[in-house]
Write a structure and sequence with these properties.
Blueprint (H helix, E strand, L loop, with lengths): L3 E4 L43 H7 L1 E4 L7 E10 L31 E9 L2 E8 L5 H19 L5 E4 L9 H8 L4 E3 L11 H16 L8 H16 L2 H8 L2 H10 L8
Parallel strand pairs: 3-6, 6-7
Antiparallel strand pairs: 1-2, 3-4, 4-5
Helix pairs in contact: 4-5, 4-6
């Protein structure tokens, strides 16, 4: 994946983070009332007023065959339980019929955390995170996982690196690590912006495929769960269309945030 920057008209980025969505008092004919989506604060409106956010939103990513490779990264947690809803087809009044009830085993659940990266050329590697995720753990991942694997794909030149605003990412030791490697440029990333990070969608697809593939093979321990994650990640490595579509959606994602005045978008 390659990128060059184009500055937007500042008037287009005059976003008001405090803007409110007005309520509709009367429903138009043909539109049925329904409950609103429940969105957590983590996926709330972007902090457009901050300097870092404005810097990013003034830049539109235009993907071409010249420029700098961009690396997207993130951490995620995967549970041994299958959270996806099960769709059934039944007659009215049979919601609690035993034939249409999906039982979940809540006891004995466990989860693992992992870190991964991707670029336009496909998923990179994923690394299991054992224990607490702190600056020491992250520096180990950057030095021994990220740097080695990304240089296999991009042996030379400058890299643009995306990471979210997790406090660990901006620890003093992590800042020093990047300062020692000026060839890696960190993208200024706005807070509360998972809808701008395309690897979030890749992680969602990872969980979806794992659920479908191992629906009848619940892992007995964390090692088995990790093996399922690794196998599923390898399957995603071969799906170039998925990754290409995600990365090339970046211009639309940025424009959607601008047009929504920093509020939620469909991404």
């Amino acid at each position: 994946m390659f990128v060059k920057y184009v500055q937007l008209d500042p008037q287009l980025c005059d976003l008001n983070a405090n803007s409110n969505v007005s309520n509709v008092d009367k429903s138009p004919r043909g539109i049925n009332a329904s409950t609103s989506p429940q969105l957590s604060d983590v996926k709330g409106h972007h902090v457009i007023g901050s300097i870092d956010a404005l810097h990013l939103l003034q830049t539109i990513f235009i993907f071409e065959t010249i420029g700098l490779p961009v690396i997207f990264s993130d951490e995620t947690t995967i549970s041994s339980d299958y959270e996806d809803p099960v769709r059934v087809y039944r007659e009215n009044g049979l919601r609690h019929d035993q034939r249409y009830v999906h039982r979940r085993e809540r006891s004995g659940r466990f989860s693992i955390s992992c870190w991964g990266w991707m670029s336009y050329d496909g998923p990179g590697v994923t690394e299991r995170i054992d224990g607490r995720f702190n600056a020491g753990t992250y520096e180990h991942i950057l030095e021994n996982v990220f740097l080695l694997s990304v240089r296999e794909r991009f042996p030379q030149g400058t890299l643009l690196f995306q990471q979210d605003n997790h406090p660990v990412h901006y620890a003093a030791s992590i800042q020093r690590w990047f300062q020692r490697r000026p060839e890696i440029e960190i993208i200024n990333w706005p807070p509360k912006s998972p809808d701008l990070n395309v690897i979030e969608n890749l992680c969602a697809e990872l969980k979806k495929i794992r659920t479908a593939t191992y629906a009848h093979r619940r892992p007995r321990n964390r090692d088995e769960l990790w093996n399922q994650v690794v196998d599923t990640w390898e399957d995603l490595v071969g799906d170039q269309n998925l990754v290409h579509n995600l990365v090339t959606s970046m211009p639309d994602r940025l424009r959607a945030v601008i047009e929504a005045d920093g509020m939620w978008t469909r991404f």
